[in-house]
Q: What sequence folds into this?
């Protein structure tokens, strides 16, 4: 898999619409749509660099998934959405509902480790926010997360720039923020692993409107690491694009994780008569 074009770095005239676009711009849009799963074989033959019928259908599907007016044209709202920072994960072609559940861990106790830290934020802040991001999920479903310094762990966390050893190189500031791999058997040896693009302007301060809120993105990526795909529901944490801090699960996210793991198990102490 190659890096999808970073639409936010493209020189696209706001007023360019569909068939007025030139070859390179259409090619970039097609690559973007293909990368995220919107260009599908059943849409017919694709002509590279041409705003053809297959491309228009893919744009309609993208607009439908993002709750935009479905025109099939690359209007300002559509280009604006494409230019937003987002998760690098494919948007699973939607079928009906909101959340998608892909695969699950067999066990309820999940371990994690840091392979590297960010150059932008302090190690202690990252450790705290990662624990908080895992808590969002463990409070709603039957999973528990623990950091482990040695031995084999389920989820390996790292910060990286550009190419970093898997087939999904990062793309510099904005565009793709992070990606994660589903639980086994998906993802092979990388199953559960979660990578953050260290070229982003990460912040751990929820009041910093210029930065990308690390906790929000971590919680989203851990949703993938426990087996959830993208949701079509705007307002869900598992929605593909980033629109500012969201340090909570929406009802759709809760339904998603409970479909995989059930509600949190009641601990022994909770059962003790007081
Ligand atoms: Zn994602
Ligand atoms: Zn990676």
A:
């Amino acid at each position: 898999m190659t890096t999808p074009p970073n639409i936010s770095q493209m020189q696209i005239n706001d007023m360019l619409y569909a068939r007025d676009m030139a070859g390179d711009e259409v090619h970039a849009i097609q690559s973007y749509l293909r990368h995220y799963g919107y260009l599908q074989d059943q849409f017919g033959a694709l002509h590279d660099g041409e705003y053809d019928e297959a491309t228009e259908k893919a744009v309609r599907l993208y607009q439908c998934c993002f709750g935009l007016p479905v025109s099939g044209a690359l209007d300002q709202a559509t280009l604006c959405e494409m230019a937003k920072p987002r998760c690098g994960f494919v948007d699973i072609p939607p079928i009906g509902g909101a959340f998608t559940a892909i695969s699950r861990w067999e066990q309820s106790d999940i371990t994690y480790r840091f392979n590297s830290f960010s150059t932008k934020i302090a190690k202690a802040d990252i450790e705290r926010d990662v624990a908080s991001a895992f808590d969002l999920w463990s409070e709603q479903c039957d999973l528990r997360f623990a950091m482990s310094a040695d031995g084999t762990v389920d989820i390996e966390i790292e910060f990286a720039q550009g190419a970093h050893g898997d087939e999904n190189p990062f793309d510099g500031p904005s565009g793709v923020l992070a990606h994660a791999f589903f639980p086994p058997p998906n993802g092979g040896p990388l199953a559960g692993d979660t990578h953050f693009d260290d070229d982003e302007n990460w912040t751990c301060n929820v009041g910093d409107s210029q930065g990308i809120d690390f906790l929000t993105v971590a919680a989203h990526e851990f949703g993938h690491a426990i087996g959830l795909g993208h949701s079509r529901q705007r307002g869900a944490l598992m929605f593909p694009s980033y629109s500012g801090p969201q340090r909570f699960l929406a009802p759709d996210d809760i339904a998603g994780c409970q479909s995989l793991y059930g509600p949190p198990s009641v601990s022994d102490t909770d059962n003790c008569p007081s």
About this structure: The pocket of zinc ion (ligand 1) is lined by residues 87, 89, 220, 224, 230, 240 (CB under 6 Å). The mean pLDDT is 88. The helical segments are 23-35, 53-65, 76-82, 123-138, 214-225, 251-261, 268-271.
